[in-house]
Write a structure and sequence with these properties.
The complex is a heterodimer of chains A (407) and B (106). Chain A has 407 residues and is of the alpha+beta class. Chain A is built from 17 helices and 14 strands. Chain A has helices spanning 17-30, 50-57, 65-68, 82-85, 95-104, 109-113, 116-133, 139-144, 146-156, 163-170, 181-204, 210-215, 226-257, 259-267, 269-283, 324-327, 362-379; strands spanning 12-15, 33-38, 42-47, 62-63, 137-138, 292-294, 301-303, 307-309, 312-314, 319-322, 384-385, 390-391, 400-402, 404-406. Chain A has a 5-stranded mixed sheet with strand order 2-3-10-7-4. The longest helix of chain A has 32 residues, at 226-257. Chain A is globular. With 106 residues, chain B is α+β, with helices and mostly antiparallel strands. The radius of gyration of chain B is 12 Å and the shape is globular. Classes of the chains: A alpha+beta (407), B alpha+beta (106). The A-B interface holds A 54, 57-58, 97, 100-101, 104-105, 108-111, 113, 274, 345-346, 348, 352, 354-356, 358, 362-363, 366 and B 29, 32, 34, 39-43, 45-48, 67, 70-71, 73-76, 78, 104-106.
Chain lengths: 407, 106
């Protein structure tokens, strides 16, 4: 039986927001997961239900090794380039545990908290520039992208004098770069060489930044090699630029679409920033009044033995992935799931995943999203849309490519 | 059966029946207790299940491992002497647990 004969269908869309939410509700009621044949890599089970997803994400019987070694092609829409397969995302314990332990302290909630003031300062300087130019302004280019790029450069410890080059090379990773694979490949090569040089400098002369921490990491007798550090830096860039920029753009668009939620935020920015950020992460894509599609999942795993998940048998060797869009609207886990409620107190969304591989940059992403939204609406409370947001629907992450605003 | 008493940042209390062997974090997540996130699922990888354990009960549990100790330094709310990561506190049959949830986890 192929997925196209199952009702409700998965993948689905594009549908209106309301139709999409209704479709997801029916899907969740019908089955815990759908089997999809991807354009590359064959079949994969895509999990829609929250409890089932959480159980897989914290179950050591699901591994990434067959993808890392190239034994299996990742079942997905686009190929995973070899450099990506060498990142921590595709390691399993014990190597994963080792790498993760050495990097997570550098990105911890506490560490990120110490960066908050500089994020606020930088966000305000971006807004100063916008105000000086006058609207309408494309928020994606003027705000959503520069903020995470700056914060990550700061965190890593890229010298100011090298920022322009660093951003140019790193933009090759961006979905909005518009570069050909050859151009992107050249940029990635130059970035790799630059980072290797910087890591060597930091090993010899440590500063108070993440590259220094990675270059000099010690765990008992354990250290990280350059070959291990570089993929970590790459995965931070890949996760830290595009995705975070998209969250900021999505959150702003969702708030601009909802007069009610925007008014709530404006009345108590400091009190509501944290819960607003979580709600944007959970359902921001469904709160922009844009068409929605179902079919995107997070990176898959391979089952090492037969596992029954919510009544569905997943056999050893089969691939499994989670579908955050459905999971985040599961009424079993979220009350009144289709409501975009910026004051929501219990918000166990899985946008930043869960378990071993949960987003290592989550504290940083959260802080940037909070600061990005809070400062923007604090400074420009009359912010409004000055045109329809545009998206790149060809790209896997469907990023917002422009968000024209005025105030 | 054992009970876990969660004092929330606003001073209110939630009391939950806990299964022996579950961690204080798992118990919170299962029962939807606000303020304990546990993003990593209990593998000492996130510091978002931070709690302040009742001082009288500190001796009921083994000292934090080096890994837990390292992660406690990473918590969003600054650690105190009675700070623990609740994924490391296993519920024991017949013994109640009292914890206070810090203002911030993320």
């Amino acid at each position: 039986m192929s997925e196209t004969t199952l009702e409700p269908a998965f993948p689905f869309g594009p549908l209106s927001t309301e139709e999409g939410a209704a479709h997801i509700r029916a899907l969740l009621a019908d089955r815990p997961m759908s089997r999809m044949t991807m354009p590359l890599g064959g079949d994969v089970w895509i999990i829609h239900r929250h409890a089932a997803a959480r159980s897989v994400l914290s179950d050591p019987r699901f591994v990434r090794e067959p993808f890392r070694t190239g034994e299996r092609t990742v079942p997905y829409y686009v190929p995973f380039p070899p450099f990506l397969l060498s990142t921590i995302q595709f390691e399993d314990p014990p190597q994963h545990t080792r790498l993760r332990k050495l990097v997570q302290k550098g990105l911890s909630p506490r560490r990120v908290k110490a960066m908050r003031d500089s994020a606020v300062t930088f966000a305000n300087s971006l807004i100063d520039d916008m105000v000086a130019r006058g609207g309408p302004v494309d928020l994606v280019q003027s705000y959503s992208l520069p903020l995470p790029i700056q914060m990550l450069s700061d965190l890593l410890g890229v010298p100011s004098s090298d920022r322009d080059r660093f951003e140019r090379w790193s933009s090759a990773f961006l979905s909005v770069s518009g570069k050909s694979p050859e151009e992107a490949g050249a940029d990635i090569g130059e970035l790799g060489a630059y980072m290797a040089g910087l890591i060597a400098e930091r090993r010899a002369d440590p500063q108070d930044d993440l590259l220094s921490a990675l270059a000099n990491a010690r765990d008992k007798d354990d250290t990280l090699t350059d070959a291990e550090i570089l993929p970590i830096a790459f995965v931070l860039i890949i996760g830290g630029f595009d995705n975070t920029a998209n969250f900021i753009s999505t959150g702003t668009a969702a708030l601009l679409r909802s007069d009610e939620q925007r008014a709530r935020l404006l009345a108590d920015i400091d009190g509501l920033t944290a819960t607003t950020a979580e709600e944007v992460l959970r359902i921001g894509r469904f709160a922009m009044g844009m068409p929605v599609k179902g079919g995107v999942s997070l990176v898959p795993w391979v089952a090492t033995e037969d596992v029954e998940i919510d009544g569905q048998l997943v056999r050893a060797g089969e691939a499994v992935a989670v579908d955050p869009a459905s999971i985040n609207q599961d009424p079993e886990a979220i009350e009144d799931p289709t409501a975009f409620d910026i004051g929501r107190k219990d918000n166990p969304h899985l946008t930043l995943s869960y378990g071993l591989h949960h987003c290592v940059g989550a504290p940083l992403a959260r802080m940037e999203l909070q600061v990005g939204i809070a400062e923007l609406f604090r400074r420009l409370p009359t912010l409004r849309l000055a045109g329809e947001p545009t998206f790149n629907f060809e790209h896997i992450s469907q990023p917002m490519t422009s968000l024209l605003v005025d105030w | 059966m054992s009970k876990v008493f969660y004092t929330l940042p606003d001073g209110s209390e939630r009391v939950v029946e806990a299964a022996a062997g579950d961690s204080v974090m798992q118990t919170a997540v299962k029962h939807g207790v606000t303020g304990i996130v546990g993003q990593c699922g209990g593998v000492l990888s996130c510091a978002t299940c931070h709690v302040f354990l009742d001082e009288a009960e500190l001796g009921d549990y083994p000292e934090p491992s080096e890994d837990e100790d390292d992660m406690l330094d990473c918590a969003a709310t600054e650690r105190e002497d009675n700070s623990r990561l609740s994924c490391q506190l296993a519920v024991v049959e017949g013994r109640d647990v009292h914890v206070t949830i810090p203002a911030e986890q993320l």
